[in-house]
Specification:
By secondary structure, this protein is mainly alpha-helical. It is 74% helix and 0% strand. Helix 1 runs antiparallel to helix 4 (63-75) and helix 3 runs antiparallel to helix 5 (85-115). The chain is elongated, with a radius of gyration of 19 Å. The structure holds protoporphyrin IX containing FE.
C-alpha cells in the first residue's frame, strides 16, 4: 500500500513537535538567570523549568523519533545510504541530547530544587557550594543540548550533501 500521501501530515506533526518541545527550552536560561538574581524565587524558577521539561520537552520530544521514523517509512528512505548521512548523524545527536536531558540534566535540576527548598541556615553567607557547582553543570549541559538541537535542525532542514 502506498502511504506516501501521509508525508506532509507526518512532517507537519514532526515540525510542530519540534517547535512545541524544544522552543521553550531556549528560554530556560532567562528563567534561570532571573531565579539566580532573586534567590528567594530560585526554587520557584527552577521548578518552572523542571515542569516545562517534564510536561513538554521530554514527552513531546519523544514523539520526534516516532514521526521521524514514520516519515522514513512512508518515503522509503534508507538512512544508511550516503545521501542520508545527515539523517543518521541527526538521529545519533538526538539520542545523545535526549539521553542527557532525561538521565542527567533532569536529575541535576531535581537536586537543585531539593537544595533550594529549605531556607538557608541562620548565618549562611551565600548559597551552598554544592548548589553553585550544580548550577554551573546545569548551565553547561543546557548550552550543550541547545547546540545539539540547533545542529539537528540544521541537518534536517539543509540536508547537506557532501
Ligand atoms: C530520531 C529522531 C528523528 C528522526 C528519525 C527524524 C527524521 C526526519 C525525516 C526523515 C525528515 C524528512 C526529511 C525530508 O524528506 O524532507 C525530517 C524532517 C525534519 N526534522 Fe526530523 N527527525 C528526528 C528528530 C528531529 C528533531 C529532534 C528535530 C528538531 C529539533 C527535527 C526537526 C526536523 C525538521 C525541522 C524537519 C523539516 C525539514 C524540511 O522540511 O525541510 N527532527 N526529520
Amino acid at each position: 500500500m502506498d502511504l506516501a500521501w501521509l508525508f506532509p501530515w507526518l512532517l507537519f506533526l514532526h515540525v510542530l513537535g519540534a517547535i512545541v518541545a524544544f522552543g521553550p527550552a531556549f528560554a530556560f536560561s532567562i528563567v534561570g538567570t532571573m531565579g539566580g538574581a532573586e534567590p528567594q524565587h530560585a526554587n520557584f524558577a527552577t521548578r518552572v523549568s523542571h515542569a516545562m521539561t517534564t510536561k513538554r520537552v521530554l514527552p513531546i520530544g519523544f514523539t520526534l523519533p516516532i514521526t521521524g521514523l514514520a516519515i522514513i517509512a512512508v518515503r522509503g528512505i534508507n538512512p544508511f545510504e550516503r545521501p542520508f548521512w545527515w539523517l543518521a548523524l541527526a538521529i545519533v545527536l538526538y539520542l545523545v541530547a535526549y539521553g542527557y536531558g532525561f538521565f542527567v540534566q533532569r536529575k541535576l535540576v531535581e537536586r537543585a530544587i531539593d537544595l533550594t527548598s529549605t531556607p538557608p541556615p541562620a548565618g549562611a553567607s551565600g548559597p551552598p557550594p554544592e548548589l553553585m557547582a550544580l548550577v554551573g553543570r546545569i548551565q553547561r549541559g543546557g548550552i550543550g543540548m541547545g547546540l545539539l538541537i540547533v545542529t539537528i535542525v540544521f541537518l534536517m532542514v539543509v540536508k547537506p550533501q557532501i
